[in-house]
Amino acid sequence: MRFATLVFLACCLLFDSPAIAQDRQTVIRDTSARVVKIFGAGGIQKLHSYCSGFLVSKQGHVVTVWSHVLDTDSLSIVLDDGRRFEAKVLGAEPQLDLAVLKVDPGIDGLELNLPCFDLKQAIDVTVGTRVMGFSNMFKVAVGDEPVSVLHGVIAARTRLSARRGAFNFPYQGPVYVVDAITNNPGAGGGVLITRSGRLIGMIGKEVRNKHSNTWINYAVPVTEIREPIEQIISGNYETQRRETDEETPGNYKPVDLGLVMVPDVIFRTPAFVDSIIADSLADKAGLMPEDLVLFVNDKLVQSVKMLATEVGALEKGDTVTMIVRRGEELVTIQMKVDIEQRN
Amino acid sequence: MDARSYCFSSLVLAFVCLTVDAYAVDPAVFEAQQKRIEVVNKVAPSVVAIFGGRGDGGGSGVLISPDGYVLTNFHVVNSAGSFMKCGLNDGVLYDAVLVSIDPTGDVAMVKLLGRDDFPYAELGDSDKVKPGDWAYAMGNPFLLATDFRPTVTYGIVSGVNRYQYPAGTFLEYTDCIQIDTSINPGNSGGPLFNDDGELIGINGRGSFEKRGRVNSGAGYAISINQIKNFMGHLRGGRVVDHATLGATVMTLHDGSVIVKNILEQSEAYRRGLRLDDEIVTFGSRSIRSTNQFKNILGIYPDGWKLPLTYRRDGRKQEIVVQLRRLHRKSEMTPGKRKRPQPRVIPRPEKPNDGEKNEGEKKEDDKKEKPKSRQIQLPGAAPAPPAKYKHMYIKKEGFANYYFNKLEQDRVLKALELMGSFSDLNGAWVFKGSTSDKRKFDLAMTDSSVGLNFNGQPAATQLLDGKDFAEKPKGSGGMLMAMHHFQLLLKHGGAKFTEFYYFGSEPLDGKGEKMDVVVSVLTGVKTRWYFDPRTNQLVGFDTTLSPDEDACEVRFQDLKEFAGRKLPSAFVVRSGGVLYNEFDVDQVVFVEGDQQAAR
Q1: Are B332 and B477 found together in one domain?
Q2: CATH class, range A2-234
Q3: Is the dihedral of CA B198, B201, B205, B208 positive or negative?
Q4: Number of structural domains chain B divides into
Q5: Which positions in chain B touch A181 (Cβ < 8 Å)?
């Protein structure tokens, strides 16, 4: 049976041999037209306000990575020909680091007929396959410019034990690791394709190897996320595990750092500091009562609940950066978490 | 083994045979490999490893002519001194001298000395480069090659016509080529070649972020077509400037680009461009974003004339505008400049002070360059090699005035071919008829220039140093222009307060490039145009003051008058409008008597 698998894999390789590959320029042109630049929230500190995405329907469904960039009411999507659309988040699955957006055609019922990938045509490939990556890394492209294209080889298909800031990487499935530097700022949501233009994967956001502390270049196989994407588009997707509270390691509570937050009374209570415990970490770091916590590390904190989640995920020895609003100004606070964890 | 499994096994076997057969390496792979080897072998001799005069620092460059002209980055030569040491892949270290710098475009020119048969790279056409094209970068990353044989990295073009923001107004990368070819410290100034081994760009920059200052998959090369526009300027030893239109633009939500600000003194304004006009094309390229506009502006030197189409109230209008210089002279003077340091590729550390200084290096990256190491080196820059000492002349506004003098001498041979005018101390009188069928005579003496139509005085320009009015009206100052023409013929550059080779540019924005020489006297500036193919003066633009339209004089063929060659006819325009055409029938040189002009 192993033999048969080998044969099958060999055939897959053959299928993408250069002999039958389309003209590369045509592939690049066609793919560039299906990859979009997304501009949204961020721009503060080192949080970039842009990412990449790809069109999966003629009506303008865009697949991208779930990130702080989407956390705004004014998301815009710019095509390679400069066309600009407003967009809304249709659905998201943070566990898969996945979000689906829908562009607003501007006029109700307007047929957009946008160039797009056919998710059904996405394939799995083997190690050694030559690939190209497309993304708007470093926001090199704006307006009517196509995104950047890189070339490389699939180095491995594996699972990642990775971190993003102080947090565990949520996606547990297999990924393709590539030898090209595909995962740069803003590259998340870009695509990995074969040299003949077949869709393989979605470039993930920047993560670091938990053990070696090196940055990883990887993409999530589209075949792994195809089903949830289709379900989100058709409107019958149910979030897999939303009980993030239970999932949080719960290593710390805000009070452990010296933060007493306002009572959590509504669905989304803003993360205002009620008081600060004297001589605590928060006190020494300069946090003050009535500060509104906006970001913890690179995560936008929209409520007291979210703050608890983020703080719970810290590990001993981590350095946490908080951005707080104090009156009219934004203040950045850093503290090293050197106290014992709860568990 | 039962029959079924036997059957299956043979099927598998058959498949494997097929597969193994298909795995045999495609001859095309070997061909491609062979081609790469040939390209590398062909171009490697032209790649230069550049070191400062003390043997410190380091960058790369590329030879573009057999007599040793080399292109590199401004940020490579910025602190390397006037004389450098350059290694080629033959293992020989050559002396080299700084020729010119273009701080805005991050380009510099250096000349290797000691040979007139240097191997050199052929220039390609970077407008033909497309995303996906293979691209070779060569140079000396991390100063790996102690024998100067260049390191080759190989990748694809990730994007073209990219715009990368400058630091202030220096080191701006416009219309540049983005590559995934690995670009690292030490690659700066080195060549980017296409699949045919043609030079398509000069590598100089990368997007670096949290991964440290090494390749992050996005390198940028200055396009060779931009450098071609500056080639004459660079050979002239100058501190070369870029240009501004005198107007800034913004992109509206519908993708149109409109004029956001405009200087009333700019030529664009005088040609009719106003606030809120939509820019449709610029430099014959259509404009759909601000970056595109900046891309086009960034690839031209100041003084270049470019066509521009704008739309107002639905009506399109085409104008030709001359670009103004981007910086004031004082901003371009080396030494007075603040050292710009955006995300250019840093100079590599010396290999032996590698990792132990990691923490210290990070600090340095945030601040300026790690200059301390250079300061610690014993003594100042070493004395230039004795036999090449004469090849460096310091002068304000020039990187090396020696090379400007070379170009002046080359271009001004055209004047010698016109004859000797130095002893013609009397009045000069041009006689003939104009296109509007009038007889004219134009008389020039040391004290005045006068123009008569049909025997009646039309205008007189006094040369007492006080009369700078435009004479005659509508000509842009033709009489002053002709006076300067007389000065040039009689004295060459000697009577002007400033006189230098400027560079080369297409005449009136069209056709082949002409050599441009600039003269200045009491605020009156003239740009003299010489055709390098015919070795002839073909015309000149004289501007009475910087914010007025020039008087543009264009010559027809030269003809013999009184034993000297002068234009058989000339056309005078100003502000895009024809003033008159003058057919010259006769030129009289009056002996000695200055008063004969009237």
Answers
A1: no
A2: mainly beta
A3: negative
A4: 4
A5: 180, 211, 215-218
Radius of gyration (Cα) for chain A, nearest Å? Answer: 22
Q: How far is B364 from chain A (nearest CA, A)?
A: 20
Instruction: List the one residue out of A113, A22, A24, A180 whose CA is nearest residue B216.
Output: A180
- B259 and B116, same structural domain? no
| Identity at A175, one-letter amino acid code | V
Dist CA A321 CA A301 (whole Å): 12
Give a yes or no: residue B297 inside a domain. Answer: no
Q: Which pLDDT belongs to residue A74?
A: 86
One domain, residues B577 and B467: yes
Q: Evaluate whether ipTM surpasses 0.85.
A: no
- The CA-atom distances, in angstroms, between A330 and each of A140, A292, B180 are 28, 9, 37
The mean pLDDT of A70-75, rounded to a whole number, is: 87
Q: Report yes or no on B403 lying in a domain.
A: no
pLDDT of A2 higher than 70: no
Per-residue pLDDT tens digits for B68-127: 999 999 999 988 889 999 999 999 999 999 999 999 999 999 999 999 999 999 999 999
Question: Does residue B373 sit in the same domain as residue B313?
Answer: no
Instruction: Yes or no: say if B46 and B119 are a contact pair by the CB < 8 Å rule.
Output: yes
Residues in chain A within 8 Å Cβ distance of B155: 150-151
Q: Is the pTM of this model over 0.90?
A: no
pLDDT of residue A4: 56
**Residues of B contacting chain A (CB within 8 angstroms):** 12, 15-16, 19, 22-23, 26, 28, 130-132, 155-159, 161-162, 164, 178, 180, 207, 209-211, 215-218, 251, 253, 255, 288-292
Given pLDDT bands bounded at 50, 70 and 90, which one contains residue A123?
very high
Q: How far is B430 from chain A (nearest CA, A)?
A: 56
* pLDDT per position as a tens digit, A135-167: 999 999 988 899 999 999 999 999 988 877 666
Q: Do B235 and B269 reside in the same domain of the chain?
A: no
B218 lies in the same domain as B72: yes
Do the domain assignments include residue B144?
yes
Decide if B266 contacts B247 (C-beta within 8 A): yes
Block means of pLDDT (10 residues each) for chain B, 598 residues, are 53 52 79 96 97 79 98 92 93 95 96 97 97 96 88 97 82 94 94 97 87 85 98 96 94 88 93 96 92 94 95 95 88 58 57 35 34 39 86 94 97 94 93 95 94 94 89 95 96 96 94 96 96 95 93 95 94 95 95 52
* pLDDT tens column, A221-267: 999 999 999 999 998 887 655 444 445 678 888 989 999 998 876 66
Determine the 3-state secondary structure of A41 from DSSP.
coil
pLDDT, residue B213, reads: 74
- CATH assignment, A244-336: 2.30.42.10
Contact partners, residue B273, CB within 8 Å, separation at least 6:
B247, B259, B262, B308, B310, B319, B321
| Contact present, B39 and B196 (Cβ < 8 Å) | yes
Say if residue B311 is in the same domain as residue B213: no
Same domain, B381 and B371: yes
Residue A144 DSSP SS3: coil
Q: What is the pLDDT of residue A14?
A: 45
Q: Where in chain A do CATH 2.30.42.10 domains reside?
A: 244-336
B357 within a domain of the structure (yes/no):
yes
CATH number of the domain enclosing B277: 2.30.42.10
**Domain with B274 in it:** 243-284+303-319
What does the buried/exposed string (b/e) look like for B538-576 if buried means 16 or more CB atoms within 10 Å of the residue's CB? bbbbbbbeeebbbbbbbbbebeebeebbbbbbbbbbbee
Cα–Cα distances in Å, from B511 out to B227, B275, B407, B451, B504? 18, 31, 21, 32, 12
Determine how many CB atoms are found less than 10 A away from the CB of residue B44: 18
DSSP conformational letter for A23 = P
CA distance B518 to B493: 9
